[in-house]
Design brief:
The complex is a heterodimer of chains A (484) and B (489).
Chain A: H1 4-18, H2 24-43, E1 54-62, E2 67-73, H3 75-93, H4 102-121, H5 125-134, H6 136-146, H7 151-180, H8 185-188, H9 195-213, H10 221-228, H11 231-256, H12 258-284, H13 289-310, H14 313-345, H15 350-354, H16 358-361, H17 363-377, H18 383-398, H19 400-425, H20 445-463, H21 466-477
Antiparallel strand pairs in A: 1-2
Helix pairs in contact in A: 1-2, 1-4, 2-3, 2-4, 3-4, 3-11, 3-14, 3-20, 3-21, 4-5, 4-6, 4-11, 5-7, 6-7, 7-9, 7-10, 9-11, 9-12, 10-11, 10-13, 11-13, 11-14, 12-13, 12-19, 13-14, 13-18, 13-19, 14-17, 14-18, 14-20, 14-21, 17-19, 17-20, 18-19, 18-20
Chain B: H1 4-19, H2 27-48, E1 57-65, E2 70-76, H3 78-97, H4 102-120, H5 124-133, H6 135-145, H7 150-179, H8 184-191, H9 200-215, H10 224-231, H11 234-244, H12 246-259, H13 261-288, H14 292-316, H15 321-356, H16 367-370, H17 372-385, H18 392-405, H19 409-434, H20 450-468, H21 471-488
Antiparallel strand pairs in B: 1-2
Classes of the chains: A mainly alpha (484), B mainly alpha (489).
Chain lengths: 484, 489
């Protein structure tokens, strides 16, 4: 059933293309809602074995070379499919007032979503790569056509980084296929790759995927790309696309080459910690609200990579949880900054926003941003806390020093988040502020719905992380790369 | 008895004569009608072709010049068949791209006949006859109908390829005097044990290699190509890159690899080095071009380099049969794919040129606002060319890399750079053509008109079709791949 997320999304894309433009946004909404409903139904369905990467569909595709249309599902995939569904629905809701080239916009949007579902569910490495690269093209157009600030530069930078990562991944996949003769991820997870192959193939493949996850120092596409993208574009970029890289690094690079992974994992941890601290420090100095959020994404994804590097159940489960959590929080932050604020004020400069008294002009935006900021800082009760604490517990076992540095990084995260929150919403003394800004258009209903969905998700997981961890942990335990 | 293949060769020739019966203005229509006819015969050939059988099929053998062992021997196997299909596809595509004069149409049809002959002939004398007779129309097409700089380009093209041909002819005379036959199959059987002895074999090998390397072309014999492709009219460039350039690759597969297995093994690393240079330097050169046609031309060198990478990788060293199968299948697919995709790229550059009378990368800008359809379809062709999964280019390249990685990991890893540079080149081109502010000179641009859509939609569908379900095209040459892989083992 879960395979239908892919078909419905692509079907929706085709429908958007065929139907008149008046139906475009409703078609997109229905398609993404259906995807979310399917993943939720699977999520709450008890008789699905989520501990193993169980085949869902398997059809011969190019049989002479062992390529199959092969989808499978385990807890890790399911959680990521779920966050894709949530981010997609809210991205559509936050794009409700797109007027310019509507059909095209929702077409690209649905293609990104459908391709991401495909990546998370592929059990054939060739298929996975196909979906993975499929996401690049619509992403480029989404930014280059519909973006703002320096959009061509941002789109091109992102695409070139993606292609660079893609070329490394391609090389790694060729190496896998040439060494083992198989493309099936489950078979490959059993295959004993020679250690000398692993020790060079792992870094190639991991780095290739991690480019898209925003690993330091290859992260620079992320802030510019996020800033240039239209709101829905940055929501999908932060919410889903960065997860594609992290997922690939886990499912393919780490799980197929455990020996190579153990050799290199200290380096990954170092890069991850640098990424966390460095991005947070840079975010502290940004003047553009979207840049602040863009760098915070890099910082949060650093936690994911740190969790991977721990190679234990806690760390890796925490990483998957963090992928979910950041998917929701990142989307929420970009939604507030890009849609709720920028569409109305036409500026994202923190100094300009400070003078606008947005707290009174847009109270709902202020409320949403407070929630999002709290979640992003890792306040207990929100999903960010649950994820990061799990990762840090894992890291404590493997890299105690990293925990201390990361702790300092978390302070920086709190600092820049509070700074942005204060500058954007709470900088005006109420007594001196006039009511001059009250002519801003009010927050619309789709915006409220989208924001509520995301806030609900981060709260639900924050209050009851077991909901996700119960499904993630068995799947993580059955991965080959996790130390028992 | 006159068989299907002979018909196929004769139809374009008859068409070339028929052009001069009708009015000059109707030349293109007549040419297209004859192409429909030859396309129909090509499809019949495909339909009659037994894809499970190994070896040559539909053999037509007639005595020709018995004193030198030259026979009229035409036949097809899987490799020949996909090339015949490719020629039948690229020519109508090229004819519909541009309104060519009557003389140009006639020359193109003659070239088409020569190409059909080249890809089906199984005897060297006959093959060489067809091979050479495609050269003259190409030369004339560039020389008479080319754009600026055509004299220089035409002469350069002719001198390069003619020198190559002479070298090849001399080499084959050497083989004939040693073995007494011109038959490809018979020669291939000698190949295993060594065709010739002593240093002569290296001379002969070098002669044939040079002839074919110029034709493909391989670095450093490629310098005629950008000039020729740039100056030729759109339709001619499409044919040059889509069909004519395949003669070289075909020759490598059909002649050099079976005839000189031992020599290739010894020279292997050098050959691979040259090929990797083609793959890596060509897109860098393309990156530096300001003229779109030159850019596409350089990328053509890169794409054919992949074919030779696969071929040389599996012939230079002993690899498992499965890798040989993968690489050879990839090579065959890549030949076909490159034919379609490169022709499509030249077609689009031609469309831009028609609208603007210029084709510099800087002459355009912001086209996305003005002509979204043109940009969209052109992007598909570009993505196909840079090897995006889901489109036809990827599957061939993936198989080639897979097959060659097992035996030449280092060379293959370097060749991946070629993929990256190609992507960068195309992305830069897309950015400066499609996005940014609308260039003033492009404000009167018209989007695709109906006839153009009619041409480009089937080609694009084919790109997606091969990319998503490669099996149908793979079935054509599967048996041939198995047979050849054994030959190279």
């Amino acid at each position: 059933m879960i395979a239908w997320t892919i078909y419905i999304t692509f079907g929706g894309a085709a429908a958007v293309l065929v139907l008149p433009r008046a139906f475009a946004r409703w078609t997109a909404l229905v398609a993404t809602l259906a995807g979310l409903a399917i993943s939720l139904a699977t999520f709450f369905c008890d008789d699905v074995d989520l501990a193993h990467f169980k085949t869902v569909v398997r059809v011969p595709w190019f049989p002479a070379f062992g390529m199959n249309y092969h989808l499978a599902l385990d807890g890790i995939s399911l959680v990521l499919v779920l966050v894709t569904g949530i981010a997609a629905v809210s991205a559509v809701l936050f794009s409700w007032d797109v007027e310019n080239r509507v059909k095209e916009f929702f077409l690209w949007l649905l293609l990104v979503v459908g391709g991401s579902y495909g990546v998370f569910l592929s059990a054939d490495i060739f298929l996975l790569f196909l979906f993975y690269e499929l996401v690049i093209v619509p992403k480029y157009f989404l930014i280059a056509i519909f973006g703002s600030t320096n959009k061509e530069y941002g789109a091109m930078k992102l695409t070139l980084y993606s292609f660079f990562g893609g070329a490394l991944v391609f090389l790694g996949i060729v190496a896998i296929y040439a060494t083992s003769g198989s493309l099936d991820l489950n078979q490959l997870a059993q295959f004993p790759f020679p250690p000398q192959v692993q020790s060079w193939a792992f870094p190639v493949l991991f780095l290739g995927f991690a480019v898209l996850a925003g690993i330091w120092p290859l992260h620079t596409w992320a802030p510019t790309g996020h800033v240039a993208a239209p709101t829905a574009g940055s929501m999908l970029l932060a919410g889903i696309v960065m997860k594609l890289g992290a997922y690939g690094a886990l499912r393919v690079a780490m799980n197929l080459f455990p020996i190579g992974f153990y050799q290199w994992r200290t380096w990954i941890a170092i890069l991850a910690v640098i990424g966390i601290v460095y991005a947070a420090a840079v975010a502290l100095r940004q003047r553009d609200l979207k840049f602040v959020i863009g760098y915070s994404s890099v910082s949060h994804m650093g936690f994911v990579l740190l969790g991977f590097a721990t190679a234990n159940v806690f760390g890796v489960s925490g990483s998957v949880l963090q992928m979910f959590s950041h998917g929701v929080i990142g989307a929420l932050l970009f939604a507030v900054a890009g849609r709720m604020i920028y569409r109305r004020t036409h500026t994202r400069e923190l100094d300009a926003l400070a003078a606008m008294n947005l707290r009174q002009a847009l109270p709902f935006a202020a409320f949403t941003f407070v929630v999002a900021a709290a979640a992003s800082m890792g306040i207990p009760g929100f999903s960010g806390f649950a994820a990061e604490i799990t990762i840090l517990i894992g890291a404590w076992k493997s890299f105690p020093v990293a925990v201390w540095i990361t702790g300092a990084g978390m302070v920086l995260v709190a600092a820049f988040t509070l700074r942005a929150l204060k500058r954007a919403f709470f900088d005006v003394d109420l007594t001196t502020a006039g009511a001059g800004q009250s002519e801003l258009p009010p927050i619309t209903i789709p915006e409220r719905l989208g924001a509520s969905l995301l806030m609900f998700a981060t709260l639900a997981v924050g209050v009851y992380p077991k909901l996700l961890l119960d499904r993630i942990q068995p799947a993580v335990e059955s991965l080959r790369c996790v130390l028992k | 008895m006159v068989g299907l293949i002979t018909f196929l060769i004769l139809i374009p020739l008859v068409g070339a004569i028929a052009l001069y019966i009708g009015r000059p203005g109707s030349a293109r229509v007549v040419a297209l009608i004859f192409n429909a006819l030859s396309g129909f015969y090509a499809l019949m050939l495909w339909q009659k072709f037994d894809s499970t059988a190994r070896g040559l099929q539909m053999i037509e053998r007639h005595v020709w010049i018995p004193s030198i062992g030259a026979e009229y021997l035409v036949a097809v196997d899987g490799l020949s068949l996909i090339l015949v299909l490719l020629v039948s596809l690229v020519f109508p595509f090229a004819f519909s791209a541009q309104r060519l004069e009557r003389g140009a149409c006639a020359l193109m049809l003659v070239m088409q006949a020569a190409l059909y002959g080249t890809f089906t002939a199984q005897n060297f004398v006959l093959w060489f006859l067809f091979y050479e007779s495609s050269l003259i129309p190409a030369f004339l097409l560039i020389k008479i109908y080319g754009g600026e700089n055509r004299d220089y380009a035409a002469v350069k093209f002719f001198v390069y390829t003619f020198l190559g041909s002479v070298a090849m002819l001399l080499a084959f005379l050497g083989i004939y005097f040693a073995k007494g036959t011109f038959d490809f199959e018979a020669l291939a059987r000698f190949g295993k044990s060594g065709l010739l002895a002593g240093n002569l074999r290296w001379l002969v090998f070098a002669g044939i290699f040079l002839g074919l390397a110029v034709k493909v072309p391989v670095f450093p014999f490629h310098t005629w190509l950008p000039d020729a492709y740039q100056t030729a009219p759109t339709g001619v460039s499409m044919v040059l890159t889509g069909a004519l350039s395949k003669m070289g690759v075909y020759g490598f597969i059909r002649l050099l690899a079976p005839l000189f297995p031992n020599e290739i093994k010894i020279a292997g690393p050098w050959l691979l080095g040259l090929v990797v240079c083609s793959i890596v330097f060509a897109p860098l050169a393309a990156w530096a071009q300001r003229d779109l046609k030159r850019m596409v031309a350089y990328l053509s060198i890169n794409h054919l380099g992949y074919c030779l990478l696969g071929l040389f990788a599996i012939t230079t060293s002993t690899s498992p049969l499965i890798d040989k199968h993968a690489a050879l299948s990839g090579v065959f697919l890549q030949i076909f794919n490159h034919g379609i995709t490169a022709a499509a790229l030249f077609y689009f550059v031609g469309l831009l040129e028609q609208r603007r009378n210029a084709r510099g990368i800087d002459d355009f800008g912001g086209l996305m606002q003005r002509t979204p359809l043109l940009c969209g379809w052109m992007s598909v062709a570009m993505f196909s060319s840079l090897g995006l999964p889901g489109l036809n280019g990827f599957i061939g390249e993936f198989l080639i890399f897979k097959g060659s990685f097992a035996v030449a990991a280092g060379f293959t890893a370097i060749a991946v750079l070629g993929l990256l540079f190609t992507a960068v080149t195309f992305m830069r081109a897309m950015q400066s053509l499609f996005s940014g502010p609308l260039a003033e000179s492009c404000s009167g641009f018209s989007d695709l008109i109906r006839t153009e859509k009619f041409v480009i939609v089937p080609v694009t569908l084919l790109m997606f079709g091969i990319g998503l379900t490669p099996q149908f095209i793979f079935n054509i040459f599967n048996a041939t791949v198995v047979q050849m892989a054994r030959l190279f083992a």
